[in-house]
Amino acid sequence: MTQLPDLNHLSHSEKDTLIRALWAQVQALTVRVAELEARLGEPAKNSDNSSQPPSRDKKANRQDKLPRKGPRQGSLGRKGGGRAVSATPDETVIARPMCCAQCQALFAAADHQLIDRYDKIELPKVMPVVTRVELYAGQCQACGSTTLAPLPDGLEQGSPFSINIVALALYLRFTHAISYRRLSRLMLELFALSISEGALDAAFQRAKPCMEAEVGAILSRLRRARVVCSDETSVRVDGRTCWNWVFQNNEVVIHVIRHSRGAGVVSEVMAGHRPALWVSDLYSAQQGHAADWQVCLAHQLRDCQFAIDAGDTIFAPRMKMLLLRAFVLARRRHHLAQTTRRHYRQRLERELDAVMALAPITRDARRLRKRYGKRRSYLFTFLDHPEVDPDNNSSERELRPTATYRKVTGGFRSNWGADLFASFRSVVGTAARRGIGAYQALKMTLHGTSVLAPG
């Protein structure tokens, strides 16, 4: 209602209806005001008590540094060690004086003494190597057929740019978030290679099937895995908010970008496979996909800290101490016998009983107590299955490049570009688990060599 009607023209029943409507509106606004007032009393969220990244924290101004005493020795006050000389120098220059600078007397071999050895490093001038191919065809005089000359691998007709150039462009585009325009300029100025933005786009589209084939092999390995960790973050694709999901373990990584944040994405990726163990946060779409589940305790630590900042002195401090004790045990879990781990879990469960018996009075603490009452059996799964971590930090580390790429570029203009990025992250993440660098992994994939170990 934007304007009060003329009450003189309303009947008694119409006035009663108006009063009831206004009363309902007042009640709704009262509830809303109470919610806003409660929110004003909450502490500010930061990286210590929420999932907010540290880059968004408010940082205090640094105090003026005290004047340095003595010469600088390395960074952060450490003793400088210098750069180690190369074991295999490409060239060695030996500088020996021939005669005395004072009296011009000639030096013998025994008069020389080595006083220093160091390296000088230079980059060679990088120029593209152009191979001209002249393809001939032979005309048979006997049967009249035409035969084309065979070509060496890599010199087939089509794009003039080699696989190594495409791999370098993909690496710079998706690892360092370099735009098409800057990438084209970089290639020209650093490598004297003229390649247009359209040629880069076409090269990426030709590389996409090779990347997808490798992702298919990685995905089949994931669908046999015993442990799967998952997480997701938002991305922008063609002006719409989508979600970059990651599924990973110690062997493989799979990224997919979908319009949905629902559990259907998990069902699509896993294709009916039900792992023994799942690690994730408390988001409902990531629950119920495995026989057992490990809740990310790092998220719970931050939520407990937020409740403490909000004024809880009863429940959250005790719960935080219990979770920290669990992290201490997690560092030792691989070196403990099964019976010892079972004993430690029973002790943690008893301490959790004592914490759950507390009666918190603040809203955030009551919410935490209700949460752990429902999911307490999934807090210490890592003690029964030491192959899983007590947190989901490995998945968050896999999504960090996605967040960086999103901030630098703003998102993707096309669905195929988003899919190519997901394939790139899958291949590079899987290769990193085998000690293979991103650029080397791209060259292997484009040459048809899998980054997966046999098995």
Commentary on this structure:
The structure is a single chain. This protein has 455 residues and is an alpha/beta fold. It has 12 helices and 7 strands. It has helices at 12-40, 163-175, 180-191, 197-222, 264-270, 297-309, 316-332, 338-356, 363-375, 393-409, 415-432, 438-446, and strands at residues 137-139, 146-148, 227-237, 240-248, 253-258, 277-280, 292-295. The strands form 2 sheets. It has a 5-stranded mixed beta sheet with strand order 5-4-3-6-7. Strand 3 (227-237) and strand 4 (240-248) form a beta hairpin. Helix 2 (163-175) packs across helix 12 (438-446) and helix 7 runs antiparallel to helix 8. The relative contact order is 0.10. The mean pLDDT is 90.
What's a quick, concise take on this entry?
With 455 residues, this protein is an alpha/beta fold. Among the domains are: 156-270 and 399-455, no CATH class; 297-383. The protein has twelve helices and seven strands.
